[in-house]
Fold each of these.
Amino acid sequence: MHDRSSSRRLATVVRALAVGALTGALALVPGVALAHGGGPSGHAPRAVNHAPDRPADVGTSGPESSCSSSTAAALRSATPTLRATLSDPDGDALRGTFQVRDGRTGRLLWSSRATAAQASGSAHAVQVPEGLLRDGRAHEWRVQARDAKGRTSPVVRCRIAVDVTAPGLPTVAPVEGAGAVYAEDAVAGGIGVAGDFRFEAPGTDDVAAFLYAFDGAPAQVDVVPGDAGATVTWVPTSAGPHQLTVQAVDVAGNVGPERLYRFTVTAAPTAPAGARWLLDEGQGLTATDTRAGTTLTLTPSTTWADGMAAELWGTTTDRALLLDEADDGASTAGPVVDTTGSFSVATVVRVDADGAPATVVSQDGAAGSAFTLGTSTTACDEELTTCWAFAVAGTGGDTVVATSTVPVSVGSWYGVFGVRDATSGVLRVDVCHLGTVDEPGSPSSLTGADVSLDVAAGSDGPFRVGTAQEGSTPWVGAVSGVQTWGSVIDVTRERLICSGRM
């Protein structure tokens, strides 16, 4: 009897040791845990099955789009492929289930069969059947993973908007303000004389870009958010007939029909070309006129800095002249503007000092500057101590000054436009306040009041940036670009420049 009792006690001890050893070993196995009650005196341990991970790399193909639960991705297909990568922490094989629901009500429209079981980390995809998604409607699609034991992952929800309707036929219109106006089926301009063309897509509110080609050379221009269209500049290199083709592209990628626009370039210029200095060289002592080839020569003390687009919007290629010493500035060898006729001058500048009159651009005349564009401290409205001013000399020795009510603020960027209309006998100054990084302004310019000037004095002296004649009233700040025209520019041209398209 004593031997039997001892044997039973010994067997119990051996079993307890075996269960303890097994429990310790299982605790070291990833993905395995003891169930409640497991242990030397409980039931045998069992593995815990973890739920699959949240689906990753979720989106569509045919066309490509990424998943967003808040902003609907525009798709130019009613039968896109829905895709997701499914993973499991236990390494188990997984199946995927996809659903499509009404974007407004959430009503279930379609549920796929479970995809074939694949190893953890594999991509799963299904194609939405025809007739399910409706053009112009928002939908939501969902994906969820499931393992062989029935555990499911979190559900991922994605919003899409089907758009399979292409934009309509775009309009093309020549824009005044460049060197020439190339009207359709007409003869104008000349070799090297730039022209601007405005593209719009009436009846379409989601145009993202325009595909265009001058004489078959393909190009694309994107539409700035909030704008109804886009404007491009073209410089002819040959005379004779030319053609422009334009197509609108919406946010979903649908491409509309092609608009054909024909015009003819004359062999010799018929309109003043003006000048256009982007001031993006960033180094050296000269700046190139991209329109007519007139060179600006910098004084030795003049340096370079970030331009308006670089400082406000991070466009690293945009540069500017930095005028912070008394002898800073730049000038041409001869006149650029015919001051006896209609002309316009534009510049994008930053104000670094206030309290004294200062000149951004000017052109020398016989007895002083034929015109100046900058700031004044004597011609302003009563509520302003410093104001933007455009002064043009008359033939009788008098100088007429037009001013703006847009305040001058140190540290801010501005687009400033001096406009002289010889036909109407008036001049004005328009200004847009572009602001600073911390306090951005608006690309919309404020049109100044017309001031009468019947006849303006002629000018055969150099064009200057940063000073008036003989270096007087120097500008303190940065100049990010300068343009001139032998015509009156309109508000469309001003808005483009104030949007960074110098």
Amino acid sequence: MSVNKNKPLEAVLLNPDARLRKLADSAELTTLSLQVSIHRYYQGVLDLYKLAVSYLDDRLIERCFVLMYRYCWFCITELPKHPDDAEHESTEKTQARELLNNAVPLTSELERQILIVYEAQAVYYRFAESQRVLLLEDPQAWRLQQETANKRYEELYKEAEEVTVRAGMEMGRVRPLQPEFVDFGPNERPLPQVPTEVTPSKLLLTTREDEPGPSNRHVSSPAVAPGSSGSAFKPIRPAADSQPDESSANSSLSDEAVPEKNYAIPCDLVEKFLKCCAENTKNNIQTCGVLAGRKLRDRYIITHVLVPKQSGTADYCVGQGEEEVSCILDNASLLTLGWIQTNPKSKAHMSPMDFHTQHAYQKIMKESVAVICAPAHDEVTAFTMTPRGMEVLSECKLTGNHPHPETYGELYTTAPHVVWSTDFNSYILDIRD
């Protein structure tokens, strides 16, 4: 086995405590924004909890820990700072507080199990680093012990793998509490059911670069984003001709990087949405909707657009009735995964008010996107805020329509993790009447 003597392994891989702190830090980075309503926050943290539980079911322990840690962080540290929290009463708030009693011990157990795995992996990586140092200081001694060293690599890999599998199995047996069904009353509007032919195996294959977009409209299709959907919760087997690849181990130490092509939108969604808001478009009035769907393994699937009561002009659109929207989506077991809006006359772009809307969604769930439809220019684009954009918007205290000096590519960009799919259909629920 050859070793790159000039490339030391990242120090965090050799220190399990530091590696765990780095993982926890990635969950703490999301702080409160006073421009997001307190009800939207409680709706969002319940979605966080549901996502964390789904990752636990899939035995993606690190991702579960990050989201569960963030859930606890929001509920304990951040939400009480919101000026409306003290007087706010809702079913979502009650559930979030009740689930916290389950989330805190579960997060502690996840932390314990992850540390056990990191310690086993650290032994493996320390041996790799010792081999690198030996090659640097005494190449002849390094060559003489290569047969023994390769056997030791295999032994340490097997030990770390056994620890990893055992931890995953133990956490996979945990059955966390689930949010309860919300009784919205006799006027509740049920969502159409997702057809049974929508299966995980079919949807997970929907990542082709040549997949057509909605109808014949122009859809931005960027290159795949950096990052990996693989979990660091497994040791990296050394290749025969290289040292262990720490980049793979680091790929999911933080969920800051969105996995490539993990967000599927049905191609018929745009046509159905534009048909729904045709009258507003004709009168040069924006229309907005909530993108909702489900998580299947490590993919997010948009299945519904909920068009809420709203008011709008040519330049903005504001949704109303958050409580009704959240109850409908909760009872249908759907997650809020982003939003969609028309720009009746202008091109597909995001305004400063759109920045703040997307910022609110993305603070809670980083995969959230904004789909902007520009029918006059035959354009449809799914946008996401850049890290710089999230930083700028977190510091911005202005409201209403106000300028930001940075533009496309600086504050926001085309969402690199979105794929348009013809494998399933979307459903529109218009509750404006």
